[in-house]
Design a protein that fits this description.
CATH architecture of one domain: 3-Layer(aba) Sandwich
Shape: globular
Structural class: alpha/beta
Number of strands: 15
Oligomer: single chain
Low-confidence stretches: none
Strand content: 5-15%
CATH class of one domain: Alpha Beta
Distance between the termini: 37 Å
Largest sheet: 6 strands, mixed
Radius of gyration: 21 Å
Bound molecules: pyridoxal-5'-phosphate
């Protein structure tokens, strides 16, 4: 399997080559030349597999340049009961109203990001060792990505992590999760500013090509193709867990920000998984909902991006959306290039002539949820089912309840546990969310973090000093 760019300007490359690549050289995102097609016989054979076995069967179709024995070992070391809490890894529970919840947040940092990031840590370590290379990851986080990356990369040979976060803006629980890590290869940098200031510093360093090359700077952001592939696996697993046989169809409802999670659902559907619809749920930052209602894609600047109580979806420029649009315009790289030129000029684009196709051929529909909807959903699910859901998952359930058709099996993806967002849970339920074992008192642990102004040269100097001492 070879990979090409959504903007048509990259010679085909192997999985291991694109694994360590951020954007493609032409500014696009990597995608396989074609999606592997799953036959009914394969689907039947896969229904009884364990999560790790299923992950191996799916990922081997995409990572064809990793020897099968090595890949099997990597996948089996990743998807364990020890890391994800159950043998099933992603169990399904059904609410009283029939909506199924696919649990994706039982990993080390209590958000679905662990599902892919844990694999990425092991893949990076393997590929770096094989190539005799080092990687210094520079990332920016508003909360969940940073902790998932740090827990996946801690202690890994050949890897250092420099993670920027907005000083004082994450929840105390999220701060404690990241800053209490004492591993020698994990470096937390709190920036006096907002998430976007952190992101700008990452971009400034990425654009300093000499610095980037000299210090082997890489990223783990959600455009990384291996993260998308790892997420494809749980759509298959969720399908098997929510159905009795392979004649049934399901629809997935996905709380969305950067479009990475639902992009994996799109790929699973293109591979032949019996998915009826993909329901995109947004919060008040509803750029994606607007697109699937009107065909207009109008990314917004940070001044027009709201701070909400489902903060991991406070995104108004959905990077992975480009992968879906590539398929929507018939895999025409030149067309995508022209569309994203308009995005970069701040204009956005209009694909209303493709809207029916997005819905009918690709199954996409959407809905949105507000703070009041979120609180109401958390309350009703707690009252009816005795389950406390997090704010992002609540957005998904709200949209799923509205969108569901008679007889439709809807699986809603749980993207985090409520312990991460205690303030809003208290606002909804007047009590603290349940806290999983092992997290008691983490706020009191010693923290390792440096605090800088939003100044790219200061961050670069810190990276240089730190690497000189490794
Ligand atoms: C990252 C994240 C999302 C959004 O996922 P995308 O892949 O960016 O669409 C939703 N909920 C939570 C809790 C997250 O951490």
């Amino acid at each position: 399997m070879k990979y090409i760019s959504t903007r048509g300007g990259m010679a085909p490359q192997s999985f291991s080559d694109i694994l360590l690549m951020g954007l493609a050289p032409d500014g696009g995102l990597a995608l396989p030349e074609s999606y592997p097609q799953i036959s009914r016989a394969q689907l039947d054979a896969w229904r009884g597999l364990s999560y790790a076995e299923l992950a191996f069967e799916i990922i081997r179709l995409f990572a064809t340049d990793i020897p099968e024995g090595d890949l099997r070992d990597i996948v089996q070391r990743t998807y364990t009961r020890a890391a994800f809490g159950t043998d099933d890894i992603t169990p399904v529970k059904t609410l009283q109203d029939g909506i199924a919840i696919l649990e994706l947040s039982n990993g080390p940092t209590l958000a679905f990001k662990d599902m892919a990031m844990q694999l990425l840590g092991n893949l990076f370590e393997y590929v770096l060792a094989r190539k005799g290379r080092q990687l210094n990851i520079l990332g920016a986080t508003s909360g969940d990505t940073g902790s998932a990356a740090e827990y996946a990369m801690r202690g890994k040979r050949g890897i250092q992590v420099f993670m920027l976060s907005p000083d004082g803006l994450m929840s105390p629980f999220q701060r404690a999760q990241m800053y209490s890590l004492q591993d020698a290869n994990i470096h937390n940098i709190a920036i006096r500013g907002m998430f976007d200031d952190c992101q700008d510093i990452v971009k400034a360093v990425q654009n300093d090509h000499a610095f980037k090359a000299k210090y082997d700077i890489g990223t783990v952001n959600s455009i990384n193709w291996a993260r998308v592939v790892a997420q494809v696996v749980y759509y298959f697993k969720g399908y098997f867990n929510a159905t009795e046989n392979n004649d049934q169809q399901v629809s997935f409802c996905v709380p969305s920000g950067n479009f990475g999670n639902v992009c994996a659902g799109h790929i699973a559907r293109q591979m032949g998984l019996p998915v009826a619809r993909l329901i995109v749920a947004t919060n008040e930052n509803d750029v994606l909902d607007e697109f699937f209602r009107t065909g207009a894609y109008r990314p917004r600047g940070t001044a027009n991006t709201y701070v909400t109580s489902s903060p991991s979806m406070d995104i108004s420029k959905a990077s992975n959306f480009e992968r879906f649009v590539f398929d929507l315009v018939g895999r025409d790289g030149d067309a995508v290039k022209a569309l994203w030129r308009k995005v970069e000029s701040g204009e956005g684009f209009d694909l209303s002539d493709k809207l029916a196709e997005a819905r009918d051929a690709f199954g996409f529909v959407s809905g949105k949820s507000s703070h009041a909807d979120r609180l109401a959903t958390i309350r009703t699910v707690d009252a009816e089912d005795g389950v406390v859901v997090d704010t992002h998952t609540a957005d998904g359930i709200k949209v799923a309840r509205e969108a569901r058709l008679p007889g439709e099996i809807v699986v809603c993806l749980e993207t985090a546990l409520p312990a991460k967002f205690a303030d809003t849970i208290r606002e909804a339920l007047d009590r603290d969310p349940p806290r999983p074992d092992g997290f008691d008192g983490i706020e009191a642990l010693p923290q390792k973090v440096v605090v800088f102004d939003a100044d790219a040269p200061r961050v670069k100097a810190f990276i240089e000093e730190t690497l000189a001492a490794v």
